[in-house]
Amino acid sequence: MSLNVTSRQLQTAWQQLRNQWQKTSEGWNDSVRWQFEREFWQPWRVKYRARSRNWSA
Asked: How far is CA 46 from CA 5, 42, 43, in A?
């Protein structure tokens, strides 16, 4: 499997995860949701963005 194929698969999976998080977060609005977003979701978004920029270079 080439790096391009693997990169594309990761991009697709990330898009699916983002879409699912959007749906989930719309109906989940309590302190646990915000804690989850702050502690887990936001750090993953930052890591993904940094890595995806490296793939494009």
From this structure: 22, 6, 5
Q: What is the pLDDT of residues 1-57, one digit of tens each?
A: 677 788 889 899 999 999 999 999 999 999 999 999 999 999 999 988 888 777 655
Q: How far apart are CA 9 and CA 39, in angstroms?
A: 25
Could you write out the three-class secondary structure of the chain? CCHHHHHHHHHHHHHHHHHHHHHHHHCCCCHHHHHHHHHHHHHHHHHHHHHHHHHHC
